[in-house]
Amino acid sequence: MIIDEQDIMRIIDSSQYQINDAVKQRIKKDNLEYEPLNQTEFNKYILDFLHVLNDDLVVAGRDRQVAWHSGWNENLQEYIVTRDLDSLIPKYHNKNILAKLHGQIIRTETQWFDYKLHSYVVDTILGKHLNTASPAKVVEIGCGTGYHLFRQQDQFPQHKYFGLDFARSSQEIIKETNRPGVTGAYFNYFNPTRNVRLTDAIVYSVASLEQIGEDYHKFIQHIIAQRPKMVIHFEPIKEVFDTENNLLDYLHHKYMTKRKYLHGYLTTLQSLEKLGVIKIYDTRRLHYGSKFIEGHTLIQWSPI
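^ thats the sequence. predicted structure below, dont judge the formating
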């Protein structure tokens, strides 16, 4: 089976988003191939998942800063040698051949399937906000190696881009790429400061807030105080899972809980909306992910 435009629109499940020409060309060129697991393969997957849940897993939190610095530094050193932007794609995107699509576990048969599928979805949704003639400030929170940020600039060069991250090697990567219009800056999720102003900016995060677990209240207050135009999250959100009726949802929820990923974030935003502090424009489960986690639920909101 091959990923096509209909797959992307089925993932997003909303007519308010349109796939732009650049993404359409990538979908056609990449020719992403996959097959659903047969029953024997699926049973083995479930057994492997249960074994993983019984293991000691690395947990998210403040102590992971050194590990992320080391990981992004590995990408940096490869980029210095190759000068190839593809070397900035995090290695975890090519770690497993199994993934999740449309509620099923699949076996991928194309290199970097996970990353490429992910990029089609992220770029289609962000494109709704970035495909404008008027220059804007675009800020990625937890930009890592900058690979999402650079893709957005390639498609929408009229904007000014800022990549914020708590790993110093992230800023070193952005400096090394030396791309006009892209600036890197240090950002501490746990104690944010106004070194980059977010007022009227388009702010987004892609699987980065997962690292702060339940310690996100200062982050939310920081965003509200800065009053960006729009905040767009692609993050693992446990509240969307049906743990009573769906086996995969139950396992994903257990995995995210054991790793201490983002917990209660959507519920907190919903409480703030009831208080009239923010407005949530869209909450959308995207039904795709990696081997053990469906990690990219869409939330769009802004301060009022």
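The chain has one domain: 5-303.
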